[in-house]
Structure to design on (228 residues):
């Protein structure tokens, strides 16, 4: 009887997918399809609902869970945990690829969308510069440096030189905080002020400096740093 109910659920979800497209499926339905692979007779859709509840309904939180913890959540086991982790990571990489290809920057939210999938979960800091034309078209994106948990060394002269070489009108700085705290440090403030002053000598604007975390992100522009 349980198998008949599960098969009925699978047919229902499959028919919904064919009729309305994969985007019409709920998170639980998508997870149920994935969890059925390598599973036993257990209802994969009920399991998916319970699994989501363990992560407060957030696929993002689920993706950041390590494999050891994931396999013991709702006793998934290694096979289904590995399949699920791979599917979640593929989705994250696709999002990162799509965001990173953005051609126009209109707000700090665009920068967060571009870099959060790339930087938010790194265990070390990376520092990037985005170079923009006068119409805010992205001319180039460059990783300037990477370092440890507490910081990375940045040569502001290289950032400005590349802006001059690219004939950029403005620069946006981006770096992540592995600590998860988005508030800038004194060193962040000092570097931002120094780069803004240096870029202005070449009639180049430092448009913003964004600090990326997995949660809230920080914009120097939005917090009126450049008005001081």
């Amino acid at each position: 009887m349980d198998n008949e109910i599960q098969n009925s659920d699978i047919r229902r979800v499959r028919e919904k997918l064919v009729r309305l497209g994969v985007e019409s499926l709920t998170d639980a339905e998508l997870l149920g399809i994935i969890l059925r692979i390598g599973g036993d007779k257990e209802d994969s859709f009920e399991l998916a609902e319970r699994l989501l509840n363990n992560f407060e309904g957030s696929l993002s939180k689920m993706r950041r869970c390590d494999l050891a913890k994931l396999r013991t959540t709702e006793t998934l086991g290694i096979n289904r945990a590995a399949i699920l982790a791979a599917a979640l990571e593929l989705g994250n990489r696709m999002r990162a690829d799509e965001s990173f290809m953005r051609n126009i920057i209109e707000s700090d939210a665009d920068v967060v969308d571009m870099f959060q999938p790339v930087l938010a979960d790194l265990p070390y800091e990376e520092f990037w510069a985005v170079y923009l034309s006068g119409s805010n078209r992205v001319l180039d994106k460059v990783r300037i440096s990477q370092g440890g948990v507490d910081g990375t060394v940045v040569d502001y002269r290289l950032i400005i030189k590349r802006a001059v070489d690219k004939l950029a009108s403005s620069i946006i700085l981006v770096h992540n905080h592995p600590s998860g705290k988005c508030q800038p440090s004194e060193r962040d403030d000092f570097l931002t002020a120094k780069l803004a002053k240096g870029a202005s000598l070449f009639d180049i604007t430092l448009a913003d400096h964004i600090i990326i975390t997995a949660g809230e992100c920080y914009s120097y522009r939005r917090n009126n740093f450049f008005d001081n």
